[in-house]
Amino acid sequence: MQRSFRFTLFAALLGACGAPSSGDPSDEGSASQANEGLEAERTATEIGTAPPMATLESGFEAANLVVLEDLKGQDFGGLHNVYFLSEQVISGGEPHDQAALQQLADWGVKTVLSVDGKVPDQAAAADLGIRYVHVPIQYRGITTEEVNHIVKSFRELEGPFYVHCFHGKHRGPAAAALGRLVVDGISREQALAEMRQWCGTSGKYEGLYRTVAQAHLPSAEETAVMNWDFPAAHPMEGIRYAMVGMTRSFDYLKALAARDWQPDPEHPDIDALNEAQKLEDVFRQTMALEELAEEDEDFRAWMMESWEWSQKLSLALKNDDGEQAQASLKEIKALCSSCHAGYRNH
Ligand code: HEC
């Protein structure tokens, strides 16, 4: 029943926008008769080696060359921002619980690619016949080595693929776009348009757009000789590891702040004070990291200020001072953004 739902949904998507190519080789033949120029282009993209876009500095500028019909992200319980980009490539947020993984299994997903910093729960997925691959990437763009690993996964592992970061908005859609290029043979213009117009990837992350516009896509011969065995866990260290934990607590706090700090009946186990203390803890540990000494003064000052505001947040929540807690959270949010604008996004 779930399967037929998937196909109905996908058929509706195709009907509505006629966009994603099915990847069926029989489509290619008829297209070649219709237009020779198109055929030349398709033969090149068929195997997912679309050449880099040469003329555009930033892929973001090219993300409106193709205009797509609206497609909204969908939520399925513990799966958010889900986009069925094609039969083989689904983009979305982190699966939050076992039911979310079960949903992926019901859709027939065979491989989940996480590009988030958090080490995935590979054992829970394996119980459902799903393989996890972990290639954490950064907001400033995907490195050549990471592109190689992502492309190799798409070429050599079994689809359909579910590709996720944390929220499913920026890094995940960029990696999914590589999948669309490689698995479905779409054009760079189409892939960029899907990132921007469907998934809503922010223009702040130019590097992600540049990767999709420009990165060399290794051929099947090239990936075959790469020595890399699809690790399901690629643990982060230091500041980057701290950020992964920080994000989850911060997200819960934002959600609770929007409810005036009242517990969410759907997640009664999540407690604002507890999350604020975790946040405070991560900032404290980050301040103690040796690598912090190598960062410049602004960076350290922002980290210090964030820690101080997280202490004020805990204190306000302890004192039931909802207003002061809101103000503290706002300060923390501004500090996350300032530091990222200076040190993370480019
Ligand atoms: C003082 C600077 C600074 C502050 C404050 C800061 N960050 Fe970061 N953050 C960074 C840097 C630098 C990176 C990139 C690290 C890397 O990839 O090596 C990063 C990376 C991240 C990542 C990506 C992690 C991954 O999966 O690779 C997330 C998510 C994140 N930060 C969330 C937050 C949140 C939420 C806050 C506020 C509560 C915050 N950060 C506060 C500097 C900061």
Describe this structure in words.
The chain is an alpha/beta fold. The chain folds into two domains: 2-224, Protein tyrosine phosphatase superfamily (Protein-Tyrosine Phosphatase, Chain A), CATH 3.90.190.10; 238-343, Four Helix Bundle (Hemerythrin (Met), subunit A). 53% of the residues lie in helices and 7% in strands. It has helices spanning 2-17, 25-34, 36-46, 98-106, 122-126, 144-156, 171-183, 188-198, 206-214, 220-224, 238-257, 272-287, 297-318, 322-343; strands at residues 74-76, 79-84, 89-92, 111-114, 131-134, 161-164. The protein has a six-stranded mixed sheet, sandwiched between helices. A hairpin with a 2-residue loop joins strand 1 (74-76) and strand 2. Helix 7 (171-183) runs antiparallel to helix 8. The N and C termini lie far apart (45 Å). The structure holds heme C (HEC). The site of heme C has 22 residues, from helix 11, helix 13 and helix 14.
Summarize the structure.
The protein has 14 helices and 6 strands. The chain is α/β, with parallel strands linked by helices.
Poorly predicted spans: 1-46
The small molecules bound here are: heme C
CATH superfamily of the largest domain: Protein tyrosine phosphatase superfamily
Tell me the fraction of residues in β-strands, as a range. Answer: 5-15%
- Sketch the major β-sheet: 6 strands, mixed
Helix tally?
14
* Lateral strand order in the biggest sheet: 1-2-3-6-4-5
CATH topology of the largest domain: Protein-Tyrosine Phosphatase, Chain A
Task: Return the domain count.
Answer: 2
